[in-house]
Design goal:
It is a single chain. With about 725 residues, the protein is of the alpha/beta class. It is about 50% helix and about 5% strand. Among the domains are: about 1-85, no CATH class; about 195-320, no CATH class; about 410-515, Rossmann fold. It contains 28 helices and eleven strands.
Length: about 725
Amino acid sequence: MLVMEDSGTEYGCSCRSEGGCDREYSRERPRSRWAGGGGGGARERRARDATVVDGGARRGVRPAMGGGKKRTVNSTGKVVPKKVLKAKKGTTKSAASRYVTRNQALNRLQLKLGDFRRLCILKGIHPREPKKKTQGQGKTYYHVKDIAFLHHEPLLEKFRELRAYARKLKRAKAKQNYVALDRLRDNTPQYELSHLVLERYPSFQDALRDLDDPMCMCALFAVLPTVNRHDIAPEVVEKSERLSREFKSYCMRTHALRKVFISVKGIYYEANVEGEDVTWLEPHALAQTMPEDVDYRVMLTFLEFYHDLMSFVNFKLYKDAGLQYPPMLNEEMDDAAAGLAAVVHQIAKRADAANAAALPAESDAARAVESRAQTLKEKLALIAEHQDEEDEEDDGMGEEDDDTVVGEMTEDQRECSKIFDGLVFFINREVPRNMMIFIIKSFGGEVCWDGEGSPFDADDARITHVVIDRPTKNMKLNPKVVYVQPQWVCDCANWRVLIPPGEYAPDCEPPPHLSPFVGADDDGYTPEYAKTLLKLQEEARAIRTGVPLVKTLAAGDDEIDEEAEAMAEEKRYRKELEAEMKGVSYSKSLEKADEESDDEDEEESDDEDEDEEDEASSSEDSDGEPKSKLTADMALSEKDKIMRDQLAKGSSDEQMKKMSYMLLPRKKRELYKAMQLGIAKKEKRAAELTRLAEEHKEKKRRAAEGEKEEPKPKKGKKSATTKKKK
């Protein structure tokens, strides 16, 4: 290889041949294109240094001059630092290599944006927020492992088939090839999501914990109208209604409903299903408006997965309870819009026997059922020959248990099933029927209404309550029946006690509808009506347990007294132990304790005298000059004042415990400070609610007595009384 060397004035050949070289070069400096063009300069020297004469065996290494160290350079001729050379592969991964943008993910998966969004929803993959957004702030990032997880999804190929199918369908429509169009519609690619349910929820308890959103979505689409421009098909609405009705019917059958709250958004329900609390929101039974700023395709994708999840959950619940799935429907009651009352539950064994009896006598299925039954009888006969009488009794008990699987209830379910036990409610036409049926039958009552499918007539003598939501001025009321508003049913279900219905009469303003989802511990405030209901609840619990309420209250007071005595005894024992460690005898310690009690009384009297003297001398200093108006509170911020007040609450021991937070690290100290500020805010809110409740009570008292409220004077204007005084 030839290397151009600068020899001063002339340029000769540097091929280092023994016999010399016959080549002649011009005296002008040649343009060395391989050295970067332009000839000469720093760029040419860097290229000349990076070139090796020995045929390029070690290209990129600067030749050692005078025995110096070899240095590695990059393609531009710069020396590579040692720390970069020593770094091993795989140890210098930055945050940029762990995240990819959405466009990069689309290129890797070869998908359109709509299919990618749909696949992420079905697989449960969400965007991430990296600490450093290397590709820009306004982009969506995904984790590399999530995208690699999508590479092996079988739905990926199905989505590609669906996209190709859509192109074929579009082409057939454009060519008006109706034969091909019918053939394509008959062979639409189908896919299943059952493997995704098992993948995302390995156990049944995991599925129950995540059942809130599926129930909310199914309850929402069950009341939506079918709109073609939003791709809401009638089949989707019908399936959502069916799955929601099946789950509510199971809760009604097993008495799993626990809380109900009627709000402006809709009706909140909470059910306890196999130890897991499921809370969902159901819209009111009104005409729903369809806003145009909602992406219904995303909601339908979620609903598609939730339908499969709800199907699996309902099947498992019904099978565990020994019920037939899917449940049967009474067609007459269903046509009469009976709702949940149209669902007919059957024991699974009885349903199987009925299905076997309904088969044709000469069919293969009937013969198979008969053969299985015959072999089962033969095996049971062989087993019975080798068993004694005790085993036969155990078998009989086992068969009875199988028939009464649904009757096995927990203590909580048994308590809920007896709230409305023996009561028959007549639902008036203006009251939402499905809601009342769900609540009343979940808590052990019976329901009837005016119309087809009602189990009782409107004038039946067994009716005990009428749920009505209209004025009763021009109505003939039955004196033997109790008329209540729908709120009475919800409050009785929430507090698990039959509340006196006097305040819930149709023409009266009902008490406040308290939310069962918010307690005194959450808000720091207990309304007056909640205290009344708590007393009723205690009385009902005392009646159920057979223990008088006076004894329960006395037992509670005894527990409080015992705790106080135990604390005093422990404090006295600690003092005696300290005295014993100091070498003080027991008699002297008793005398010292009496002296301390006397000293404490004297100190209290002295403190009172000192406080009076301080108040007298607070207005003036020792020199007789007026005291400064600047105080220590002026140097404190609002948060510091709140923190000081929180630390000052409680006894001296509690204050010392609170002051120990100063020894915590800075982060934990700030966290404790934020907790105290939140507690102070909650207490302030509770005090404000208490004040408003007192004002409301005073207004009601004045209205009952006929007093007129004095109008408050407006700002900037003086009242007539103040003018007269002046």
